[in-house]
Amino acid sequence: MNTGNWWWDTYDQPPAGATIVPFICASDKTHLTIFPHNQHAWPLFPTISNIRKDIRQTPKKKPGLLFGPIPYPPKGAKSTEVAWHSTVGTVLFSLRNLDVTGPRLKWNCADIFHRQCYPVLAAWVRDYPEQVIIAPVSYGSCPVCEIPDSALMGDSTCQTLDNSRDQHVYPELLDETKHDVLHTLHVHQIRNQFWQFPLCNFYHLCQPDELHQLILGLVKDVLHWLLK
Ligand SMILES: [Zn+2]
Question: In angstroms, what is the span from residue 146 Cα to ligand 1's centroid?
Answer without folding.
Answer: 6
